[in-house]
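G., the chain you wanted modeled:
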Amino acid sequence: MTPKETVINYWRAWSEHNLDDLLSLLAPDFISRSSLSQRRAANKDMITKGFEIFDKALPDLKEEVISITAEGDRVVSEVIETATFTGPMELPTGVIAPTNRSYKIHVASFFRINSQGLIVEQITYWDTTSIFKQIGIDPQLFTPNTEPSITDVVQEFTRCMGTDDIDGIMKLFTEDSEWILMATGETFHGIDQIKELATRSVNARNHKGERGIHPFDVFTNNEGTRLCWEYVHTAIVTEDWPASKDRPTPGSEFKLSIVLVCEIQNNKIMKLREYFDMQTIVEPGVKHHLYS
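Predicted structure as tokens:
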């Protein structure tokens, strides 16, 4: 499936009110930002909840694609959305009774598609005020909480990990946080040591081609105090590999499964434990420290 076909099928799923088809087109780490969310990130779970709300409230919703352009992994589409507010709109703040009024708006949406043909990112622009005015409801009912949520933390953590944004990820940790490498017993205390760890780690490998950090299982507990972030890391070893001995040969490739378990308080990471199999990158039985 080409990126263009993926986006066409995405809009078709909305028009056909087919949630399963819609979710099958979204990558595990998918995020969406729109005028409705005031540019705040929404993941697959939030898209599911939104779909269910609008499917009940707007049963005749249709998305008409009027133009679509694709280049590489990027797709831009223009859509005309129409619907009639005939069912109850069940929001977290309460239920809005239907007004039986219709709306019609123009939508511009920008997509990024991964190598598996799945949507990784969507940024959408539309005039939400026009929607609310046309169907006769108060736009303040859709104003999101401005306080950061655990979802914001997860999405920002995922973005920073995937783009090597060291400064960005440091903002997610408390000043006295800890990062522990369980395979070697090395512990890094405080922002300065964790930033040094992150910097040396980034310098130690190269993400040429399709290599990189690829999360495949990301979840939190109901209280938002634990985050589990599981991924596969593929890269080329550089001359800056931190260990002074028994290190992989520079220029060699490694593929490493890693699990990060984070303890979170007030939407800040207090402690992170990193689990991986050291024998994947060094000879079995070799005592190995990466950073000391």
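The two ends are 47 Å apart (CA to CA).

Shout if anything looks off.
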